[in-house]
Amino acid sequence: WRGLHRGRPAFAATGRLMATLAGVFVWDGQRIEEEELQRSAQEMKHMENISSLLQGSDCQRLEPTMGSGEQPWEMIMDKKHFKLWRRPIEGTHLYQYRVFGSYTDVTPRQFFNVQLDTEYRKKWDSLVIKLDVIERDAATGSEVVHWVTHFPYPMYSRDYVYVRRYSVDKENNLMVLVSRAVEHPSVPEDPEYVRVRTYESQMVIRPHKTFDENGFDYLLTYSDNPQTVFPRYCLSWMVSSG
C-alpha cells in the first residue's frame, strides 16, 4: 500500500509534465474551486463584523483575518474610505496587503466589470503591453490570463500568467473575484520580460443597496513577488506614499 500511495503523486506529476510537454494545459489542480470563492466571501463577512471597531479607531494592529496562529495585520494607511494593512510573508522580504474601502459614486457592477474586462483595460491602463484571456474552463468558468505590464525605467517589464474565477452571488449580495499565478504551456517565458511566478489576489464587493445602484464596500487581499531589488523599507515607502 505504501508503494502505491507514494506513487500516486509522482504519477500525477508525471501526467501533468507529459501534458505540458504536449502543449496541453491540465485544469485539475489549477482551476479556482468553489471553496476558494466561499473563503473569500467569509473574509468579507469577518471584516464587516469588525468594521465598527475601525470607525474613528486609532488602533494600528487590528487583525482582520479568520485564521488562527497567523501574523497580525499592521495598518499602514487609515483614511475615511480607504484602509490598508500589511503583514510579512514568512521566509521572504515581502508583504501581503489588505485593503478595505468604499465608493459612493460608482455602481458595484460597473466596478466589477472594470476588473474583468481585459479589452477595456487596454484602453484606460497605459502600462498594459499585453492582456489576453488564453483559455477557459467549461466546468467552472475559470480563465487563464496573460498580462504584460510596464515597470518603471530601467527595470524590465513584468509578465503574469494567472488563473481567475469570479462569481455574482445574488442570494448573499456579493461579488467575488479570485486570481492566482499558474504556468501555461502556450505562454513560455519571454527574455524581454521578467515572469512573476508568485501572485494571489482576492476581491470581494458588497453593494450598499443593489448591484446597479451607486455605493459599495470592497475587500482586496493581495500579494506578489515582482522580483525587484528594492529593500523592504523602500517598498514600504512606495506603498504608504502611493
TrEMBL record:
Compartments, as annotated in UniProt: Mitochondrion
InterPro entries membership: START-like_dom_sf (IPR023393), START_lipid-bd_dom (IPR002913), START_lipid_transfer (IPR051213), START_STARD7 (IPR041949)
Keyword annotations from UniProtKB, A to Z: Coiled coil, Mitochondrion, Signal, Transit peptide
Range of residues in the leader sequence: 1-22
The keyword Plastid appears for this protein: no
SUPFAM superfamilies noted in UniProt: Bet v1-like
GO MF, one example: lipid binding
The START domain, residue ranges: 70-242
Protein name per its UniProtKB record: StAR-related lipid transfer protein 7, mitochondrial
Organism of provenance: Psilopogon haemacephalus (coppersmith barbet)
Recorded name of the encoding gene: Stard7
